[in-house]
Amino acid sequence: MKVIDYINQSKGTILSYEVLPPLKGKNIHSLFQHLDPLMEFKPSFINVTYHRSEHVSRQQPDGTTERIEIRKRPGTVGICAAIMNHYQVDAVPHLICGGFTKRETEDALIDLNFLGIDNVLILRGDTPKGEVGTVPDPKGNRYAIDLLRQAERLNNGFYLDEEILDGFKTNFCLGVAGYPEKHIEATSLEADLVYLKEKVDAGAEYIVTQMFFDNSKYFDFVAKCRAAGILVPIIPGLKPLTNKKQLTAIPRIFNLELPHDLINAMNSTTTDEAAEKVGEEWLVDQSKELKKAGVPVLHYYTLGKPQVIYNAVSKIF
Ligand code: FAD
User: Fold this and answer.
1) CA of 96 to the centre of ligand 1 (A)
2) Cβ-based neighbour number of residue 223 at 10 Å
3) Hey, is 149 helix, strand or coil?
4) Residue nearest to atom 39 of ligand 1 (CA)
5) CA distance 130 to 2
6) How far is it, in rounded angstroms, from Cα 189 to Cα 25?
7) Is the dihedral of CA 249, 43, 14, 224 positive or negative?
8) Against a cut of 0.90, is the pTM above it?
9) pLDDT under 70 in the chain at which residues?
10) Are 95 and 108 spatial neighbours (Cβ–Cβ below 8 Å)?
11) Nearest in space to 302 (alpha carbons), one of 28, 40, 48
């Protein structure tokens, strides 16, 4: 079922999770162990991130170094099928521009359609580690809007091979990302919103936000989107802080501000357990306020800390 239908048919806030594919070398059961307890709260859908390959230097036996390409977390499409099969819940694969030609993207979308997957979250993709700026594949899509247009064309039966006439029309519900505190590369939130509106006008049916720790940033963002004519549901993405190192890392990597109260509370802790508890309680308070405000979905980034998410979600759903 489509994400937009879950939202439209629900009378209240629904629940969703986001997971990462296991590191290469681990099996699918490591992911199921992560998800099993969280399934108690009946999420409507589970997103699975996509990770492009990156270049790393490896020392060779003769002492030279060789630069090789590795994908640390493969398997997004297979994991989506496994989640749907194992839990009978909808899976939402992320699809990214980076590392794909348009032909590979088309084939990936065909695979997803054949597997009965109804939803795709369309993204440009993170800049690979150790690289500066995102260099698009010469035969690929540059921005999320380009990938979205390609997926929309397939929804209308248009394939890259123009000899395919009367092609099968896929029927994906397409979502995109939004940034309450602006995307790191955007010159201003207003400039970012112009591109976000472009994605919605091109067919995106909902937006999932980057994490934020101050709900007023989300509420302001929604108000600015509405004023700009962006009228689709805006799903808040939530992640707990779980250690003090994140106090500097998260704002730097994700271009966001942490509220002073949260920083002070984390800094006043003396153990890892206490810091984790502060992050969990903050997440509970954020979730309660957002739910009370009637957000369509609470979307939790579960990234490696399922117990914290479990504890928080158990107080909300
Ligand atoms: P875009 O919408 O393409 O925007 C990127 C930047 O370019 C912005 O600054 C925007 O203002 C600007 N821009 C947009 N269109 C144009 C244009 N036509 N001309 C000029 N400038 C333009 N990354 C992954 O690698 N894998 C994942 O699974 C993943 N999942 C994510 C899930 C969510 C909910 C979020 C919020 C992010 C996720 N990311 C993921 C990270 C995301 O890929 C990065 O933040 C990336 O840098 C931007 O992606 P986007 O789709 O927002 O890009």
Assistant:
1) 9
2) 10
3) helix
4) 125
5) 36
6) 40
7) positive
8) yes
9) none
10) yes
11) 48
